Amino acid sequence: MTKTELVDILKKLNVPISESTPEDDEMEADIRICYWDYYWKDITASNSNYNTEVTYQISVIASIPRHPKLIELKKELNKIGLFPEFQHEYLTEKRRIHSFFSLDVLENIGTEENE
After folding, report:
1. Neighbours of 41 (CB within 10 A)
2. Which of 1, 11, 91, 114 has its CA 20 to 30 A from that of 50?
3. What does the alpha-carbon distance between residue 102 and residue 87 come to, in Å, rounded to a whole number?
4. Rounded CA gap, 25 and 81, in Å?
5. Cα(98)–Cα(115) distance, integer angstroms
6. Beta bridge partners of 39
7. Are residues 114 and 56 in contact, defined by beta-carbon separation less than 8 angstroms?
8. Which stretches within the chain are classed as H helix?
9. Residue 28: helix, strand or coil by DSSP?
């Protein structure tokens, strides 16, 4: 999966999406998705079109457990052969459910097109 493919799947859900922290106007949304990279691993194979495997955390913050959009996201990922392990926690102060998982994504980091 590439980052573009990841973002396309997230946009398909038609919910507020932010790379990193949410925008102020997204804080009270019924559901929102935030994602960010936290691990880079160089790809050293000479025939690869990408130079880095990047691990992203995808966080889904929702007003209810098993929100229909979370289930839709899971189904979309499963359709393309991705089966992430979801974790869930209750955010007491926010009164929200935080579901999250990680995905490895192929990118070119440090090339002219990404700087």
Report:
1. 10
2. 11
3. 10
4. 34
5. 32
6. 55
7. no
8. 3-12, 68-79
9. coil
CA distance 96 to 115: 36
The dihedral of CA 40, 46, 47, 49: what is its sign? positive
Contact yes or no for 49/67 (Cβ under 8 A): no
Q: Which of 54, 57, 53 is nearest to 85 (CA)?
A: 57
**Cβ atoms of residues 103 and 81 within 8 Å:** no
Cβ-proximal residues to 20 (8 Å cutoff; 6+ apart), any chain:
34, 36
Strands 96-107 and 17-19: unpaired
Given a contact cutoff of 8 angstroms between Cβ atoms, the answer to whether 32 and 61 are in contact is yes
For 10, counting Cβ atoms within 10 Å of its Cβ (0-12 exposed, 13-18 middle, 19+ buried), the class is buried
The CA radius of gyration of the chain, in Å to the nearest whole number, is 15
